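Here is one such protein, fold included:

. . .
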Amino acid sequence: MLVIDDSTTVAVAEDGTVTDAAALAALAASPTVPTLQALGALDTLTGDYKLATPLEVSVVPPTAIVSTGGTGGCVLADDVPRAITVVSSQLGQSFVVFDDGAAPAQFVSLNPPQSLSCT
């Protein structure tokens, strides 16, 4: 979702575009767009992305993850191998979702064996 003016929220396609007629009308009716048009500065529209459905993530160090390819991985969580999906990473932190849907782990191994398997 794209949020501008802290009040206008519209759906965004996977490629980052807004093409839905109702969404474009909502953007045009926002306080920012007419102001930018009047100033002749509508080249860029600043907003924030947010998830349509919030996602609970856990933060683990990248060294805790044994990659299984792509965004998949495995961590040794509370001494149990658990499959995870990496959602994002930033400044030495990996944001992950535990694939089993169970509660996040209390502890993860910082140096799991590279042969760790979650299957």
